[in-house]
Amino acid sequence: MARGSIEKRGSRKRKVKPVVLIVTEGAKTEPGYFNHFRTRQKNIDVRVVGSRTSAGETDYNSLIRKAKEYRDKSDLSSENGDTIWIVADGDVNYNNPNPIEKKDIALTHARKLAKQKGMEMIISNPCFELWYLLHFRYTTGFLKDYEAVRKLLVEHIPNYEKADDVFLTLENNLGEAGQRARKLEEYHLRNGRVLPLGITANPFTEVHHLIETLVS
Predict the structure, then answer these.
(1) Which of these, 84, 112, 141, 172, is most buried using a 10 Å CB contact count?
(2) What is the rounded distance in angstroms from the CA atom of residue 33 to the CA atom of residue 28?
């Protein structure tokens, strides 16, 4: 099957494995990571679709539209046990006026829209690489952007650059990363925030929720 394409369900007599469709904001980093789960899972069909957003800024609604397009083309249905996950970043553009407030409003709207369409939207704030960082250390300190996360990450993965395939480096610490991500959620809840977390919560990641589905 060609990269980025989706296999359509046919009228086959044999039982079809439930599909876990993962639509990511990134075109390389996130797909490169999640594609490793395709060959590791036998009871589910993991499919990963990367995206490319304009000007490097997250457009949540575009990701939802892409997820719906692939769902419709491939005849996915919750009745068959199929699930759809949208993986995106907080990705605040601090050059905009009231950047955190505006991004938080956009995310709240997108979460509601995704839920209406039966999709799960998971966010990493400020970026997906925070999930990588949690494989090595726990932090509650504000992280403005990718460069702030990378500065900490290179202490554990020297010379890391976006799109590097570091799955094998991370794999043995997967459990610890999940524990730290849950601890980070609990930290924000203790500080008066509610689930699902918004852009005002920094840092946080929800990737562990998807990982639990992939490895269960």
Answers:
(1) 84
(2) 8
Pairing verdict, β 120-125 and 45-50: unpaired
Report whether pLDDT(4) > 90.
Answer: no
User: pTM for the complete prediction?
Assistant: 0.91
**For 124-139, what is each residue's pLDDT tens digit?**
999 999 999 999 999 9
End-to-end CA distance of the chain: 25
Half-sphere CA count of 18, side-chain side, radius 13 A: 12
Query: Per-residue pLDDT tens for 16-59?
Result: 899 999 999 989 999 999 999 998 878 999 999 998 655 455 79
